[in-house]
Amino acid sequence: MRILPVLVAVLSFGLATTAQGQSCGGNFGAFVEGLKSEAASRGHDRTLIENFFANVRQEQSVLNADRRQGIFQRPFLDFSRALISQNRMNAGRNNANRYSSIFATAQQTYGVQPGILLAFWAFETDFGAVQGDFNTVNALVTLAHDCRRPELFRPQIFSAIEMYRRGMLDPARTRGAWAGEIGMVQKLPSDIISHAVDGDGDGRIDLQNSVPDSILSAASMLRAKGWRANEPWMHEVALPGGLDLTQTGLRTELTVSQWQQLGVRPTHGSLPSGNMRASVILPQGHRGPAFMVFPNFSTLFEWNQSFIYITTAAYFATRLMGAPVYQAGNPEQGLNQDQMRQLQQKLAQRGFDVGGIDGILGSNTRAAVQDIQAQLGLPADGWPTPQLLRML
Q1: Is 255 exposed, middle or buried (0-12, 13-18, 19+ CB in 10 A)?
Q2: Ramachandran region of residue 193, left (φ > 0), alpha (ψ -120 to 50) or beta?
Q3: What is the pLDDT along the chain (392 residues), one digit of tens a residue?
């Protein structure tokens, strides 16, 4: 099952203007001419620019894919079970053995453990098998022209031009995900330019066909984004009865020792050093699984900004490193997409920042839910229920 990365949704109404002064939207041809002018102002050769944009076109299929990401509305247990199949577990372990020397190099050089790299490799492209069939240049220009997130995609066009100049991208033939990511680990052009590595020593970087290039480039990017070498990212825990749930969630950090003093215990193995900072997250409320997460967990949001995706990838990585299946518990019923939108609207009307009325339970909505639960005397675990919606 191919899960395309979700990118942060910043809703725009009407025309948005970039830092360079050109608006998104409007006539597509005029928009492309504006991109050409900006590329020239950045010092690119005019012939190179014309060749890069020679066959560019707007693709409705890209816009359709951007607006069709319903799986991210599923609760954690459903989402994780959909993504973490036995086949993926087996493939992950087989690839860990097959490319053990590459993963060892990634850990020695960048401090990124095999589980994390395997998890993203699995979720992004099923270990390279499904890399996407969207023309990369068309995808980036289409999304930059669209007024939902131009500030995200417009800069990627100029990184793609630089890739073309270096011989790393063919505007007519390079294909990947609908959001412009390329290769086995699905990276945007700016990250490729900044962090890609020639892992196999052949003198070129090929993220579509070379496993060493892909794995070491992913590790290089994570380290550059703040990954702490060889530190953990997540550990499943059990909560004591009577824990103040307002302390759970990514907004609160205590040391591991402080959490232990509050009665939080690992469900298996042992927790890291008592001085390490950590949060406790409850992706499906206090009756579902609980995880202690460490600074490296936050770094993963540099890869993808979906809370549900990152939590699932982090958990899958622990499984690939030997952790047992989570204790699923018995979570309370959640909300469907329409109910979630209603909840977000009601919270926004009360002044809470929910990060957009999109029907997705992201980090901002979770924090707002936790605050309103505390005000209403409900268990403040950030998990919205029909009861909460009725009370609002």
Answers
A1: middle
A2: alpha
A3: 233 333 333 222 233 334 444 578 999 999 999 999 999 999 999 999 999 999 999 999 999 998 876 566 789 999 999 999 999 999 999 999 999 999 999 999 999 999 999 999 999 999 999 999 999 999 999 999 999 889 999 999 999 999 999 999 999 999 999 999 999 999 999 999 999 999 999 999 999 999 999 999 999 999 999 999 999 999 999 999 999 999 999 999 999 999 999 999 999 999 998 899 999 999 999 999 999 999 999 999 999 889 999 999 999 999 999 999 999 999 999 999 999 999 999 999 999 999 888 888 988 999 999 999 999 999 999 999 999 999 99
Residue 28 in any domain: the answer is no
Structural domain contains residue 130: no
Q: Is residue 149 part of a domain?
A: no
Q: Do 261 and 307 fall within a single domain?
A: yes
Query: Is the same domain home to 357 and 314?
Result: no
Helix axes 28-41, 150-165, angle to 10 degrees: 60
Q: Are residues 306 and 353 in the same domain?
A: no
Which domain, by its residues, includes 260?
234-320
The CA angle 41-159-227, to the nearest 5 degrees, is 135
Q: Does the pTM of the predicted model rise above 0.85? A: yes
Q: What is the CATH number of the domain that holds 293?
A: 1.10.530.10
| Bridge partner residues of 75 (DSSP) | none
What total of structural domains would you count in the chain? 2
